Amino acid sequence: MEKEYSSEEEFLKNYDVTRFDRPSVTSDICLFSVADEGKDNYRKLSKKCYSVLLVKRNNYPYKDKWCLPGGFVKIDETSEDAARRVLADETNLHNVFLEQLYTFDSVDRDPRCRVFAVSYLGLVDKNKLDDSLFPNASWFNITCLEDKKSYHVTLDNGNEQIKFVVGKTLKEKTTDRYRFDILENDGLAFDHPKLIIAGMERLKNKIEYTDIVFNMMGDYFTLGELQQVYEVILGKELLDPAFRRIIAGKVVKTDKMQTGGGHRPSVLFTYKNKIES
Amino acid sequence: MEKEYSSEEEFLKNYDVTRFDRPSVTSDICLFSVADEGKDNYRKLSKKCYSVLLVKRNNYPYKDKWCLPGGFVKIDETSEDAARRVLADETNLHNVFLEQLYTFDSVDRDPRCRVFAVSYLGLVDKNKLDDSLFPNASWFNITCLEDKKSYHVTLDNGNEQIKFVVGKTLKEKTTDRYRFDILENDGLAFDHPKLIIAGMERLKNKIEYTDIVFNMMGDYFTLGELQQVYEVILGKELLDPAFRRIIAGKVVKTDKMQTGGGHRPSVLFTYKNKIES
DNA sequence: TGAATAGTGTCTGTGAGACAATATTAT
DNA sequence: ATAATATTGTCTCACAGACACTATTCA
Q1: CB-based contacts of B85: which residues, under 8 Å, 6+ apart?
Q2: Residue A135 CA to C18 C1' — how many Å?
Q3: Which residues in window 31-50 of A are less than 7 A from strand D by Cβ?
């Protein structure tokens, strides 16, 4: 079967890439942000909303449906490079935090052909975006109701609503690995409901034991704002003193204050960068 | 540029997969086990050793070097299916716990062509293996010295030694994400030193907050054995009472005892399966 | 002045770290 | 008897949950 070669160079010179069927590979990005939603009352803090970035497909398959930003990885770029290129091209976003999330590879996940999707979790501070989004891209607010067996998600960008339900099944002898299955899907292309759930779960876990959240904060922030971001991502309210103890080691107080609300002003903090080079 | 199609069916009928260069995709498995090493003394417990499964390459590239078991993913199977097939074919192992680890995709990681490696973390109970390994596969004991910036690893199967050094650099605003770089590599094919480090780190983290360790234990085990497995994977010693509190909720006492050591016999425990269907 | 958020103090219970003490076997 | 592991007890300290209290601003 295998021909015999006398050296690695000779083998490589004769290597025929086309001998096996090859799949395509895309890089898809689950980009999240938490930003102000606007105030009800001059005195109240503006509420924070959790949102994900979608783009409208202008080609088949799933033409005119919304999907996560993504695209085919070129032969001479990494999937992370592709993710950055795609975000720049499709949405006009640059310098985004990215971390690899999961590789989705069900055999029939794309009707065109066999496609591996290397997905990325991305985080941005939406309030600090100076670039304006391209018109085919839009932020959708996330509402997620979770029970023991499933996630009921509604995405809303003000004009359109997308709803889907994803079931979860715990795998044997793991305490954190679920199999996700799309139970209902009204409006989101491909298996992207699974990607969004995987991204939300990853973020929810990592906000507790890493400094990942500061990728969605501006340079200066109040502890109240930071707490709101935690609460939105964790989906539950936190008690002030407990929260302050948790993040005490991660932030540094500045001499700046934030005034202007109808209440006591608060001190602005910055991220305490722990990288020593 | 893009032709216009009137329907998704028409688009799909005309879709030309070969329009873009496609990479190859492999599935590579980091399979770990912790097993007895033999006794120094009739009274002492046998020491546990941490080991990884390697196979000897019989083809170019890296002919006659050791590497992790792995192979190309077929067009109609998932990467996990491929991992199971490869383990059966190359090593004669079946029914192994697998969890997706990371997708490695440096542009030049394979001299043949562009190759994405979807890697899997695998765990087995080596003591309970009834199948005999194929002769091209071998378990290598792992010795890992870790400092702030690097891992110095020695793999030893009794006949051969493999050594490599992998550097780690913490990424900005994460507390757990490192960039791994191979600094020295004497004997392991491809970028597999990185895969092994990624696998060891994943296991070290997950042993603390999941039940993943029970995938490397037999049906019945003593708490002493279980503690040894923790210690080998975490690379540090644990205090008995603390350890027992940690795993108290995960195991169930049986009425079996393990006797035969030159010391007090110990109760055998089983995993307390938390899956309710 | 009052509504609202900012920020601090403190009590309590849980749980991990540390060390000590006891129990039981095979040789 | 002794070496070795098995198993439990308990003291202390740190810290999270819970709640109460004080501080400060602007309409």
Answers
A1: B71, B77
A2: 62
A3: 42
**What nucleotides of chain C have any atom within 7 angstroms of a protein Cβ?**
2-10, 15-20, 23-27
Beta carbons of A252 and A269 less than 8 angstroms apart: yes
Give the closest of A78, A173, A273 to B271, CB-based.
A173
CA–CA dist B31, B107 (Å, integer): 25
A78 touching B (Cβ < 8 Å)? yes
Buried b or exposed e, range B6-29, using 16+ CB within 10 angstroms? eeeeebeeeeeeeeeebbbbbbbb
Cβ contact B91:B53 at 8 Å: yes
Tell me the per-residue pLDDT of A191-249, one tens digit each, with 9 for 90 and over: 999 999 999 999 999 999 999 999 999 999 999 999 999 999 999 999 999 999 999 99
pLDDT, tens only, A117-148 = 999 999 999 877 766 889 999 999 999 999 99
Nearest to A62 by CA among A111, A8, A18: A111
* Residues pairing with A188 in the sheet: A66
Q: What DSSP element (H or E) covers A204?
A: helix A192-209
Q: Quote the pTM value.
A: 0.95
Residue B267: in which H helix or E strand, if any? strand B266-271
pLDDT tens digits, B90-115: 999 999 999 999 999 999 999 999 99
φ, ψ for residue A192, nearest 5 deg? -65, -25
A212 touches chain B (CB under 8 A): yes
